[in-house]
């Protein structure tokens, strides 16, 4: 039986104020993925993509996610998703979610984020990795789409990995201003460890199958991840270039973006690439993606 056979999602953010209805058929069984195979290349490396539950944000008012008031008064739930990419040459963890410690300390006061969101971690990232037979020390490569709190919560766990970062994002992360942020303690160990910096794009395994693509604007060095899979085709993980499906459809930018015009240019670049590659696009905070993506131990390949 398919893990997801047909999804009808209403109120991706909240019923009554904003209703986004999506209806589509999507199956995550291996036979279905084979049916969607796009130019499968028998010589290509076997890459597996796992979607990890890295927490949930409960947002009472999503106004900050629209620079022109598009989400004013809208409340809802935002999943936080991390991704493990398994390649014959090593493992890459993409984004580090909310901190695992919130799982054992679900104190509502401790989980408040300046009234913007409540944070919940129903299952730890580390335990999900262990369930796949992967320890934190086994992860050879670590990278993030950007350095906001919900993407770096467990970053220090991977200070022993090779960390791959956009040079612009690295400089932003370790600026004097960023060092004063509460979440700096979540990633501070990365500063002096094995770090590889890049500008533009970075081919993680040297064969074009997994590429980090710099698409700035949300933050100075925000990036997206491109993964070429034998059966599922090209997958693009948006980071926070978009937060919701409607954000992508209407080119809505958050009020707190580092540079909104730069974000819009990155959106243009992203959409051109998605069209060229006929890519499947997954928005990290999307309820649609959370329901569509297979849950470990299932994966896309």
Describe this structure in words.
The protein has about 300 residues and is of the alpha/beta class. The protein has one domain: Ribonuclease Z/Hydroxyacylglutathione hydrolase-like (Metallo-beta-lactamase, Chain A, 4-Layer Sandwich), CATH 3.60.15.10. It has 7 helices and 15 strands. It has helices at about 30-35, 100-105, 125-130, 165-175, 245-250, 260-275, 285-290, and strands at about 5-10, 20-25, 50-60, 75-85, 90-95, 110-115, 115-120, 140-145, 160-165, 195-200, 200-205, 210-215, 225-230, 235, 280.
Task: Compose a concise summary of this entry.
With about 300 residues, the protein is of the alpha/beta class. The protein has helices at about 30-35, 100-105, 125-130, 165-175, 245-250, 260-275, 285-290; strands spanning about 5-10, 20-25, 50-60, 75-85, 90-95, 110-115, 115-120, 140-145, 160-165, 195-200, 200-205, 210-215, 225-230, 235, 280. The chain has one domain (about 5-35, about 45-290): Metallo-beta-lactamase, Chain A, CATH 3.60.15.
